[in-house]
Amino acid sequence: MTLGAQARFFAIALSACLLAAAGCNRGGKNVSLKKEATAWPSLAEPPPPVTNPALRDAAVVIAIEDYQQVDDIPGARANAADWVKFLTKSQGVPEANTHLLWNYEATREEILADTRRAVEKVSPGGRLWFVFIGHGAPKKTGDDAWLIGADVRPTPDSIEARGVAQTELLSILESKEGVTPIVVLDACFNGKTSTGGSVMEKGLQDLVFVSLKTGSRSIVLSASKSDEYAGSLPGLNRPAFSYLLLGAMRGWGDTNKDGTITVQEAVGYSRDALEMLLQGRHQTPEIVGGIGAEQALALSSGEGGPDLTEMRMRGAAANDLKMNADTLAVPDAALFEGGTVNFSQKSDMHAEKLYGEALKIQKEEEALPETRASKWCELARLSAETNPYRIQALKMCREWQIYARALRNKETSMVNDYEYLRDYLTLEHKNKDQKQAACAAFLSGYSDLAEADYPHIKHVRRALKSLQRGQKAKVPSLSDVKIVPAGSPSATTPVQ
Asked: What domain range is 396 assigned to?
């Protein structure tokens, strides 16, 4: 899919996402999700265009956040969108030469097809970017590795049938003379998910990792070593490597301040940041085979990165207060028209009415996520023969179910963490800096919940301000505050 087609999708998805964000509610109150509040800066706004645009380049950017059968990868889509905007708006890769696939689009067939299209468009002397944010697994023969597509099931046969082999991909990328492929793999190939679990179904052994094979021209940048797994940024649910590498290319990694970020500088910055900040796991980005270390990746915009030392100090002070909070992902409620009326094959009027009801509830600020899920699921259960909205309804049903469960789980975690923090602030052997860090950790962990809807957040913010003024701080017990609404519609009935 070309960037032109994706631009229309972006416009629909953005407006609908804003609509959904305004109406994700609990107990009759608005639970609008705020912009991520974290020490990690947003990369959504690309730097100004450089003076030497990469007009000969082409790019394929793939992000699979929502796998059908395998663990999801939160933040993959946001990272991919940031990459596309950086390559096209800042570095000058032509939009017509840029292909973006995400979620269900990223099947074996589409990945290979868009890669071949990009090869046709890249000009000799240019670079061919291939950015993959997803899962990987080793081949059972022990001589190759797979990029796992969105529709792969967690079985060896399915991965072989629906995955994309590393050697096959590199063969296509290297098929045009005079072109330098740059392959960014934010995935690990030891069969592990981002949380360390297995990509394979329970009971199957993980396969032995095989070192990536590269051709003479390919520069392959990997998120981790063979005995590690690729994971999220500490404190932010975004795939770490593709985020940090992009930040480095914006200027964070220009260590010698010469205006150009090399492969070595970008990977080195990513490696140093993770080494400083990760707690409890190891992830070491690397240049596979050491090929292309001095290759220029991007022209620097002079942008400075976050203060890693300050982040490390703040994290160390709060490392005994772990928040069980994952970032909530609002369902992407892109709404599609049903098409023109065909009186020879009319759609079921019941489907039309249910679709209208689903759209109406989607817009209601007071609607619970469980209510939205229930209405979309009701529409999804109608026969596909007379229901032109079934595919969309299935998607929205599943995503609102997932979101509703995630929201309730997060609210429960917030209540538990609040009660822990309430006792933590009374401890005499904890100093002011540790207590400030603990409050900041709580606020960061639940920054995507609206403060107006949760007194817990308001009280912790007040406590933090008191500590910053050198005063003692405490938060009241809120054990009698009901968070999860009673009697909400069930959204758990499976749709066949």
From this structure: 308-331+347-482
Number of domains forming the structure of the chain: 2
Residue 475, Cα to own-chain centre: how many angstroms?
A: 33
- Are 201 and 319 within one domain? no
Tell me whether residue 370 is in a domain.
Answer: yes
Q: What is the pLDDT of residues 291-307, one digit of tens each?
A: 999 999 999 988 999 98
pLDDT score, position 279? 72
- Token reading at 135: 């899962």
Per DSSP, 171 falls in state H
Q: State how far the Cα of 252 lies from the Cα of 306, in Å rounded to an integer.
A: 8
Kindly give the parts of the chain with pLDDT less than 50.
1-38, 200-210, 316-325, 333-346, 490-494, 496
Instruction: Give the pairing type, strands 260-262 and 236-239.
Output: unpaired
Residue 193 has a pLDDT of: 55
- The pTM for the full model equals 0.59
DSSP, residue by residue, 84-120: HHIIIIIS---GGGEEEEEGGG--HHHHHHHHHHHHH
Q: Do 258 and 269 belong to one domain?
A: yes
Sheet (strand 164-165) strand order: 135-138, 145-148, 164-165
Same domain, 385 and 404: yes
pLDDT at 459: 95
Query: Does 289 fall in a domain?
Result: yes
Q: Is 48 exposed, middle or buried (0-12, 13-18, 19+ CB in 10 A)?
A: exposed
Whether 259 and 116 map to the same domain: the answer is yes
In a domain, 340, yes or no: no
Question: Do 458 and 319 share a structural domain?
Answer: yes
Q: Select from 158, 102, 111 the least CA-distant residue to 133.
A: 102
Q: Are residues 324 and 380 in the same domain?
A: yes
The CATH number for 133's domain is 3.40.50.1460
* Residue 184: per-residue pLDDT: 96
Query: Do both 141 and 253 map to the same domain?
Result: yes
Judge if 224 and 327 occupy the same domain: no
pLDDT of residue 228: 78
Instruction: Give the per-residue pLDDT at 9.
Output: 28
What is the model's pLDDT at position 219?
94
Q: Cα Rg for the chain, rounded, in angstroms? A: 24
CA atoms 159, 162, 167, 170: torsion sign: negative
- Per the domain annotation, does 34 fall within a domain? no
Q: Please give the Cα distance from 147 to 160 (Å, whole number).
A: 10
Would you state the pLDDT for residue 188? 67
